[in-house]
Every structure is written in structure tokens, then in C-alpha cells.
Amino acid sequence: MAASTGPVLAIGAITLVNNVVLNNGPAGQQQQLPAVRIAIATGIAALGLAFWENFMPRTATAVAWLALVTTLMVRIEPNTPAPLESLANWYGKT
Asked: To the nearest whole number, what is the mean pLDDT of the chain?
């Protein structure tokens, strides 16, 4: 397994949990569509970075980690809080 695969899989898991579990994503039949899109995008990104890692290993790994940090801090959808915002809101409620 490539060194960039772990961070990319973490990005997919964090995005899925943030959209569906923490922020009450769409219910029912509509809920499966974002999950499928996230899984497909995660797989494509993991394969792409693994391929890139054959030629430039340090750069591909750095891009994967940078993407993970960015995913934690930046809102992907304007109405959905970033994962760290969701975690801060959840922690403040308990």
C-alpha cells in the first residue's frame, strides 16, 4: 500500500462522517447517493496518488497530508460546517 493511501482514506471517512452522521445528511434513499459519491471519489484519489507516488513519492505523500489538513479545516459545502467546526460544536454540547 502506498504511503499516500492512508491519508486519502481518512479524508473519505472524515467527509462521510461529517456529512451524514454529524450534520444529519439527507435521510432515506437520498442518503445513499452522497455516500456513494464520496466512496468513488476517495477510491479515484487513492489510485491517482498511488500512481503519482511511483514517480514522485515525497510530493504525492505531502499532497495527501495537505489535503487531509485542508479537509479538516475548510468547508466543502457552504451550509455544512467543516469537520473541526462540527467537532467543536459537538464537544461544546456535552
From this structure: 87
Handedness of CA 45, 47, 51, 53 (dihedral sign): positive
Phi-psi region of 81 (alpha: psi -120 to 50; beta: other; left: phi over 0): beta
What global pTM score does this model have?
0.84
Closest to 42 in 3D by CA, of 76, 80, 70, 15: 15
CB < 8 Å & 24+ apart, contacts of 13-17:
14/68, 14/71, 14/72, 14/83, 15/42, 15/71, 15/76, 15/83, 17/83
CA distances from 93 to 1, 15, 38, 45, 66 (A): 39, 21, 28, 34, 30
Residue 46 cell numbers, joined: 487513492
Is there a contact between 60 and 49 (Cβ–Cβ < 8 Å)? Answer: yes
> Which tens digit of pLDDT belongs to each residue from 26-46?
655 555 677 888 899 999 999
